[in-house]
Amino acid sequence: MVDAKYPPCENCLCTGNTCKSPGETTPYEWPELIGVEIMKAKTIVERSNPNVTGVPLDSGCMTLVDPVCCNRVWLCPDKKDAAQYPPCEICHCIGNNCRSPGETIRYEWPELIGVEIMKAKIIIERTNPDVVAVPLDIGCITLPDPLCCNRVWLCPDKKGRVRVKPVVG
């Protein structure tokens, strides 16, 4: 259990840089740590923002802990124990339901069904720079939980092509 090793969770309603106060320079996101060894990433996070504790999760990280904690940064390792993706920004919407009124950025890509997974990843990240497209294992019967506002799960068929409409969340 995560709570046993770390300071008590301070609940908040924001994630990442949305937690910053106007004019604040302390970082709340670390995209540059993708690919960095997980314990080194933890050290960098904690040195650059003394208000948070880096919490290394188990490999895979398909389920993150709820509630959102203002004083924790969830670190999700890849199989080589490096930070694989930016921390999940939990949301309660999927696809175009996440779009704010008047917003023109893409949240759904139905035209990518049948496209090779890595090509789809490039297209998604180019058309919505706020998200990371995450290729899943072939089959991917169930998509990861929770919903992440900064991720698009890519479910491949047996030929490595997009099988399910990619959407934010």
UniProtKB/TrEMBL annotation:
Pfam families named in the record: potato_inhibit
GO molecular function: serine-type endopeptidase inhibitor activity
Keyword set, alphabetical order: Protease inhibitor, Serine protease inhibitor
Organism: Solanum tuberosum
DNA damage is among the record's keywords: no
Annotated family: Belongs to the protease inhibitor I13 (potato type I serine protease inhibitor) family.
Cross-referenced InterPro entries: Prot_inh_pot1, Prot_inh_pot1_sf
Lineage: Eukaryota, Viridiplantae, Streptophyta, Embryophyta, Tracheophyta
Family matches, as SUPFAM superfamilies: CI-2 family of serine protease inhibitors (SSF54654)
Keyword Cell membrane: no
Protein name in the entry: Serine protease inhibitor, potato inhibitor I-type family protein
GO biological process, any: response to wounding
